[in-house]
Write a structure and sequence with these properties.
alpha/beta; Rossmann fold; four-stranded parallel sheet; 12 strands; globular
Amino acid sequence: MVKFRFILVLSLALCCFKLVADPKKQQLRIVALAPHIVENLYTIGAGEQIVGTVEYADFPDAANDIVRIGGHQGIQLEKLLALKPDLVLAWKTGSKAEDLARIEDFGIEISYSDASDVNKVPTELRRLGTLTGREQAAEQAAIKFENKIAVIKAKYSDKSTVAVFYQLWPEPMMTVGKNTWINQLIDICQGRNVFANSRTDYPQISIENVVVAKPEVIILPDEKSQQQQAVIDWSPWPEVPAVKNSQFLHVNADLLHRFTMRMLDGLDDMCMKIDASRAVIKEPQ
């Protein structure tokens, strides 16, 4: 009986220890060098710790008030140093390697986001929770993500495959290869990326390449950008099934292109639109 009570008390103590937030970590001054990192920090309640960020970090609305210190073109190191960060959260794909190396040279701690696998979003949330002393909130968000993506996967797991061309950018025309998370999202919707076997992750292609690939659906991501996107007139190529059947699907790039909880809202929307196209594709022409 005494042993049982000891184990019970110890278990309760460990449980309470895990739930106690680390006030020191919650006071860290953070510079977040990618929009998805900013969004994930807000998701776990650590948004107020961000003292500097980059262009396009615009969600939630409060993120627009954070000091900007650069973007893809480079980081303004003088501005970064003036913010006196305790921690820099970076994404190697989103920042110049030389900028990140110089930040490390200044002795500032850098932690890197691994935004490569859709299924690792929960891992990313939990990692940020550990770094900011917000483990409980991060765990809740991670479980919510895991449950929702499981539901979406189950919903479309037995659907017929649809040939998809994801028009990432119109001019120059670019798409996605098999190693991108957009390709992973297309797979979940039971789409078959017609350019999955490209040699690079983001290949530049031509209209002729699309004609040969014969996608049944063309997905057009609508993205906020300072650069106005060109609009491609596909009507001269009715030999492409997607053109013949008018299967052009618009999706929200701000959701799909970010390694965050909201990615699942974009995924759910894209899967539903691809599913609606299945009915059209199956109809006798």
